[in-house]
Amino acid sequence: MKYTILTLFPDLIRPWTEESIVQKAIQKGLIEVDIRDIRAYSEDKHKTVDDTPYGGGAGMVMRVDVVVRALEAAGPADERILLSPAGAPFTQRMAEELARKSHLVLLCGRYEGIDARVEHFVTREVSIGDYVLMGGELGALVILEATARLIPGVIKEAESHQQDSFSTGLLDYPHYTRPPEFRGQSVPEILTSGHHAKIAEWRRKQALKRTKDRRPDLLEKAELTAKDLVWLEEAES
Predict the structure, then answer these.
(1) Which is catalytic among the residues 93, 164, 188, 214?
(2) Is the C-alpha dihedral spanning 134, 117, 51, 71 positive or negative?
(3) Choosing from 39, 85, 119, 210, which is the catalytic residue?
(4) Helix 20-27 to helix 137-148 angle, to the nearest 10 degrees?
């Protein structure tokens, strides 16, 4: 998988590619991250990338000509994604879809925004939440990490991400490790029983309970079995 990240602040992105799992994935050749400075595609001597908005108003707007040159210079891509508060919400399902692509171009806006005509040169707009940041760099990093970890070989445990929160439509079950007791709180006995079938059942029930208590909205979309429904009824009684 290749990621091309277009930004006015490459140094905000670069450290993320030099640490942890993302760095290892790059070193193994599993992913490639090409970080490009949008300013390099400005054609005036001052490397201008923005201008005042037509119609007046506060702030500056990124120029369509500069941004489109940057997009086109990135070459053919499966997706050209504009990070925008107006975009479709980024979800685990979208991460799984994007992880199957070969080349993603991630466009990070800044200032008051990007000239609206840029929308005709991207394949989709994506938002990582209902709030406004100072730019799209954090959104690009979220997409990078959420998709890269799904690429075979990036995470050692091949089935690990399949059990994550949202991958099953539910929140993840609680996890425990040593020590077995800490300040009056003990690890549930079932997890030390060695009975794998009962452990699996306990984990499923806990995932259902957590989702019901914390994100009941997810249950409306989750694929629940008849047994799941019975457990949920029992939890309510």
Answers:
(1) 164
(2) positive
(3) 85
(4) 60
- Compute the distance between CA of residue 184 and CA of residue 132 in angstroms, rounded to an integer: 42
Judge contact between 28 and 148, C-beta under 8 A: no
Q: What is the pLDDT of residues 100-137, one digit of tens each?
A: 999 999 999 999 899 999 999 999 999 999 999 999 99
Q: Decide if 149 is catalytic.
A: yes
User: What DSSP character marks residue 187?
Assistant: -
To the query of whether residue 112 is one of the catalytic residues in this protein, the response is yes
Residue type for position 128: I
The band of 169, judged by pLDDT with boundaries at 50, 70 and 90, is: confident
Name the catalytic one among 149, 203, 204, 210: 149
d(CA 112, CA 134): 9
pLDDT (0 to 100) of residue 47: 96
**Catalytic residue chosen out of the listed positions 112, 119, 125, 201:** 112
Q: Is 164 a catalytic residue?
A: yes
Per-residue tokens: 195: 């009975």
- pLDDT 10s digits, 181-204: 999 999 999 999 999 999 999 999
pLDDT on residue 237: 74
Tell me the whole-structure pTM to 2 decimals: 0.89
Task: Mark whether 179 is an active-site residue.
Answer: no
